[in-house]
Amino acid sequence: MSRLLAIRQQQNLTQEELCERSGISVRTIQRIEAGTQPQGFTLKALAKALGISESELVGKQETPTIADTKWMKLINFSALPFMFLPPLNIAAPLLIMFLKKEFNPVTKRLVTIQILWTLLAAVLCLMVVILNDWFAIRSKYMVLIPVVWLAVNIFIILRNAVSIAQNQTLRVDLSFSLI
């Protein structure tokens, strides 16, 4: 649950009432309640309308519930069976995320990690082709590149699973999300 939603409900306000008080559109309020971080004028106007400080509005979100943690684990693990088919290691977590409407920052970053790993796989495959064809570098160790890539991806998934189980955060984390 977003901070704005929790504070708005605590003050018994509808989105329309908050819109009138703050001058921020209902659609913007909906986006913020869905997980977008308010910034600049929007943040100031909402904080003033709610009678709270800006830091309270963007403060740390509530800890995830057990049900949220369960879905975070499932989204994380859903990439494992499809690691050998890189586009599917994105599709499976995304499908679960959309079907279960789990759009919290942690699940978004989990999918972002898999997107980046898929892009890295494409770059590594191109590197192997370029080294083999263009530069005529032939080595029995070229096979290690995809093997190491898969091993690191498995490690990241398992390490994040342990971290999600222990404290509902990611151990291997990104400071951004592509979703």
UniProtKB/TrEMBL annotation:
The keyword Oxidoreductase does not apply. It is found in: Membrane. The chain crosses the membrane at residues 79-99, 111-131, 143-162. InterPro entries: Cro/C1-type_HTH, Lambda_DNA-bd_dom_sf, MamF_MmsF. It is a multi-pass membrane protein. Residues 4-57 form the HTH cro/C1-type domain. GO terms for molecular function: DNA binding. Gene3D superfamilies: lambda repressor-like DNA-binding domains (1.10.260.40). SUPFAM superfamilies: lambda repressor-like DNA-binding domains (SSF47413). The keyword Phosphoprotein does not apply. It comes from the Bacteria. Keywords: Membrane, Transmembrane, Transmembrane helix. This is Uncharacterized protein DUF4870. It comes from Mucilaginibacter yixingensis.
